[in-house]
């Protein structure tokens, strides 16, 4: 895995290239910041929570979400097309028998549009290297003790797709509205390092 | 020659290329099963070298942890370009 990120060197190089592009009139001043702001705008775990709540209350939506997430999330007004090209989204759902957890072992790929910027631990070398080898142990450190009978599936975002987990709906929430259900969903739940 | 398709068993390439690749070291040489296609994209190794590359299928490939690390009862599903994979010929 690539643990060595000399960020100060690359940052300096990026700033230099950006300045050159601006001085030659290829980029407007601050254009890159504007594009980044546009990409991040609206990116929040509240989006993943809305998708999850809809999947909990609407089995048909849940089925469509697992089959073709990019199409299904348009039904709740969301999209993975905010960047230069639409990113493929893969959604997996936890069940009584199977727990899913997401990692990017090579860097830090993450569905920013649906979950906002990623937490620091998601990018840490410790999480990235250990969760593929010993997910049960790592989840225990997050405070999630899974029954021995629950199978664990780790998903490595090693290419172009982005991933989101639909956590299990908590018991005793039958009377809650979709909005109230969404409020229960956490970022860790959507990555798979916590239950809801 | 077996075509790449869901359910086909594949071995991940062992070569360690110079420069950028998206073939994680921990799956090199291991055998997994194709789960589903995850879109078509030019090989990341080519893109990193400034080549356009031709889009090719990328796959979710499921490995048993025991086959990757010698222990563990979980699975790890890794997303791999077709070029990284060799289908295993199964006896008829």
From TrEMBL, chain A:
Keywords: Iron, Metal-binding
Domain Nitrile hydratase alpha/Thiocyanate hydrolase gamma: 10-194
Binding-site residues, Fe(3+): 104, 107-109
Top-rank lineage group of the source organism: Bacteria
An example Gene Ontology molecular-function term: catalytic activity
Protein family (similarity comment): Belongs to the nitrile hydratase subunit alpha family.
Protein name: Nitrile hydratase
Annotated source species: Geodermatophilus saharensis
TrEMBL record, chain B:
Chain ranges of the Nitrile hydratase beta subunit domain: 5-86
Region (Disordered): 1-22
InterPro entries reported in the protein's UniProt record: CN_hydtase_beta_dom_C, Elect_transpt_acc-like_dom_sf
Source organism superkingdom: Bacteria
Descriptive protein name: Nitrile hydratase beta subunit
Organism: Geodermatophilus saharensis
């Amino acid at each position: 895995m690539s643990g060595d990120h000399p960020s100060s060197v690359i940052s300096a190089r990026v700033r230099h290239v950006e300045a050159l592009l601006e001085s030659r009139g290829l980029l407007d001043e601050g254009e890159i910041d504007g594009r980044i702001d546009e990409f991040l705008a609206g990116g929040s775990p509240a989006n993943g929570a809305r998708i999850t709540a809809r999947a909990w209350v609407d089995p048909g939506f849940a089925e469509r979400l697992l089959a073709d997430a990019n199409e299904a999330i348009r039904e709740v007004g969301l999209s993975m097309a905010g960047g230069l090209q639409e990113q493929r989204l893969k959604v997996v759902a936890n069940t009584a028998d199977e727990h899913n957890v997401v990692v990017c072992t090579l860097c830090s790929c993450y569905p920013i549009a649906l979950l906002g910027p990623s937490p620091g631990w998601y990018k840490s070398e410790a999480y990235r290297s250990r969760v593929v080898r010993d997910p049960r142990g790592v989840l225990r450190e997050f405070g999630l003790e899974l029954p021995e009978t629950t199978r664990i599936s780790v998903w490595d975002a090693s290419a172009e797709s982005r991933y989101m987990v639909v956590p299990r709906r908590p018991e005793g929430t039958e009377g809650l509205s979709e909005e109230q259900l969404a409020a229960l969903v956490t970022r860790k739940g959507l990555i798979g390092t916590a239950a809801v | 020659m077996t075509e790449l398709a869901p359910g086909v068993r594949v071995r991940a390439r062992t070569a360690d290329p110079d420069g950028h690749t998206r073939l994680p070291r921990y799956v090199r040489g291991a055998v997994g099963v194709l789960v589903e296609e995850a879109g078509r994209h030019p090989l990341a190794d080519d893109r990193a070298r400034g080549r356009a590359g031709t889009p090719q299928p990328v796959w979710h490939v499921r490995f048993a942890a025991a086959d990757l690390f010698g222990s563990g009862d979980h699975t790890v599903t890794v997303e791999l370009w077709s070029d990284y994979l060799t289908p295993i010929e199964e006896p008829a």
